[in-house]
Design a protein that fits this description.
Elements: E1 2-11, H1 18-36, E2 40-48, H2 52-61, H3 65-82, E3 89-92, H4 96-111, E4 115-125, E5 130-132, H5 134-137, E6 151-160, H6 166-175, E7 180-181, H7 183-194, E8 200-201, E9 203-204, E10 220-221, H8 223-228, H9 230-237, H10 245-248, E11 253-257, H11 261-275, E12 282-286, E13 289-292, E14 300-302, H12 313-320, H13 322-332, E15 339-340, H14 343-373, H15 384-402, H16 406-427, H17 429-432, H18 439-460, H19 465-474
Helix pairs in contact: 2-3, 4-9, 6-7, 7-11, 12-13, 13-14, 14-16, 14-18, 15-16, 15-18, 16-18, 18-19
This protein binds 5'-O-[(L-methionyl)-sulphamoyl]adenosine.
């Protein structure tokens, strides 16, 4: 089966922060897990480079928009390998192939009769690149997201007849209650649609940094439609000489943040319907990473560049490694909810869970095989009760990740990590080792522990891939397929010694 997963594409007019890393990591966990299940996976991320905010940012810096995006896009492109993200392609919406495909699809929408010419008059937030309804603008005419003044715009636009899709969208939500996940976001999308849809601008005519409208050269497409279409256009040119559209379209999961719900759960499916294209299977909406600001009352706010309360993912990776960051983001904030992050909590979880629970389990298990059996795993059958409990993690994790419950799945794995640690304490191999008559028991305990450790490591791979590869390398068992992840499976032979998986970080003293 094919599995296509996407992240939002990132605006290039600011530097990446942990909030951006977050959706990349989440989508990467899904992609890696599905590869372990033997699915045919395509994983896309990229940058959103057109539109008024970019044009304005370039103007402020005395650059052309092209110079600005060429300077900034690599900051996001470089973030992916730093985080060990396994994306199959990185799209930039300024790619000529993307632009040509956007023109093709939107010309079809035009030909299909879903576009008309008119004048837009209303409220607009330059920071969201979003037109706001009167209700959203409220009496104070402030952006509900940024709390900054909205601009009154009047311009010639072509409109997309979104209102005509209201019934089709409601029918979609009726028929596919898991189209938008989690449930409270589904309800939000439904309420928005039920409150009545207005037609939306499809084009802009007051600036030129965008995809030209083929039927009217005075216009460029509104950046959101250009951006949303990245999910579709990328497949047509990601692999040179091959069009992957038939193989991967439609996507299984769009992973997005809650601030862009309306675009992905209302505009996007309507646009696809208008173009006659199949719809994505799920839109998963995650919450915000929040962080206290440095003010006196240390208010908990959305992490964002403009608020100045950002964690720099590059620095965390530098100090602790990508795996620790990946783990922390998925563990400490329940995926789908808002949650506070902090360097203090990060340090606590690094020490207590990664270094102690998992790192020590691996170190002491391997050390005991060396101490008591000369580094060769005894060919004994594992403890059946323990094996059953550990092996059930594979089905549990698969079932949870089918619902993109990334935090729940990690919790299911951690219960097994803790189970294995308890098993060490219960069986006390160091006591068995003192009694020759109990050599077979010691063999069984060591085989159970190494076998269990291997299963846990394999299912954990999507979250902390580099660490798991190091551990499995030491066990001389690099196979990652979930099919073979059973405590009994295979015979492990000689194993290597292992340096601590999560050592104490060497941090530069704070100046
Ligand atoms: N370019 C649009 C998306 C177009 S997708 C067709 C955009 N870009 S963005 O750079 O502003 O945001 C990208 C993603 O980062 C969004 O999903 C947004 O929710 C997410 N985050 C930005 N700050 C965040 C947090 N503090 N916490 C979690 N995610 C947040 O929107």
């Amino acid at each position: 089966m094919s599995f296509y997963v996407t992240t939002p594409i990132y605006y290039v007019n600011a530097a990446p922060h942990l909030g951006h890393a977050y959706s990349m990591i989440a989508a990467d966990v899904l992609a890696r897990h599905m590869r372990q299940r033997g699915e045919d996976v395509f994983f896309l991320t990229g940058t959103d480079e057109h539109g008024e905010p970019v044009a304005l940012a370039a103007e402020r810096e005395g650059l052309t928009p092209r110079e600005l995006v060429d300077r900034n896009a690599p900051r996001f492109k470089d973030l992916a390998p730093k985080l060990n993200i396994s994306n199959d392609f990185f799209i930039r919406t300024s790619d000529p192939e993307h632009m040509a495909k956007v023109q093709e699809v939107l010309a079809r929408v035009h030909e299909n009769g879903h576009v008309y010419e008119g004048v837009y008059e209303g409220w607009y937030c330059p920071r969201c690149a979003d037109f706001k309804t009167e209700a959203e603008a409220g009496e104070d005419h402030l952006c509900p997201i940024h709390r900054t003044a909205l601009v009154r715009e009047k311009e010639d636009n072509y409109f997309f007849r979104l209102s005509a899709f209201q019934d089709d969208l409601l029918e979609l939500l009726d028929e596919q209650p898991d189209f938008v996940m989690p449930k409270h976001r589904y309800n939000e999308a439904r309420t928005f649609i039920e409150s009545g849809l207005q037609d939306v601008s499809l084009t802009r005519s007051t600036f030129t940094w965008g995809v030209p409208v083929p039927w009217d050269p005075d216009h460029v497409f509104y950046v959101w439609f250009d951006a949303l279409l990245n999910y579709y256009t990328a497949l047509s040119y990601a692999k040179p000489g091959e069009d992957l559209t038939d193989r991967f379209w439609p996507p299984q999961f769009h992973v997005i943040g809650k601030d862009i719900l309306k675009f992905h759960t209302v505009f996007w499916p309507a646009m696809l319907m208008a173009a006659g294209l199949p719809l994505p299977r799920h839109v998963f909406v995650h919450g915000f990473l929040l962080m206290r600001d440095s003010g006196e009352d240390a208010e908990l706010l959305k992490m964002s560049k403009s608020m100045g309360n950002v964690l720099d993912p590059f620095q965390i990776v530098e100090d602790f490694g990508a795996d620790a960051l990946r783990y922390y983001c998925m563990r400490d904030v329940s995926f789908g909810q808002d949650g506070e992050v902090s360097t203090a909590r990060f340090a606590v979880l690094y020490e207590s869970e990664l270094a102690n629970d998992f790192g020590n389990l691996a170190s002491r298990t391997i050390a005991m095989v060396h101490r008591y059996r000369g580094g060769t795993v005894p060919p004994a059958e594992p403890d059946p009760d323990l094996a059953a409990e550990i092996d059930a993690v594979v089905a549990d994790v698969s079932e949870l990740l089918d619902r993109a419950d990334l935090t729940g799945a990690l919790d299911a794995i951690w219960q097994r990590v803790r189970r294995l640690n308890r098993y060490v304490e219960e069986q006390a191999p160091w006591v068995l080792a003192r009694d020759d008559a109990r050599a077979a028991d010691l063999d069984r305990v060591l085989a159970s522990l190494i076998g269990g450790l291997r299963v846990v490591a394999v299912v954990l791979h999507p979250w902390i891939p580099a660490t798991v590869e190091r551990l499995l390398g030491a066990l001389d068992a690099p196979e990652l397929a979930l099919e073979g992840a059973r405590t009994q499976a295979g015979r492990l032979g000689r194993i290597a010694k292992l340096e601590p998986l999560f050592p104490k970080p060497q941090l530069d003293p704070v100046a």
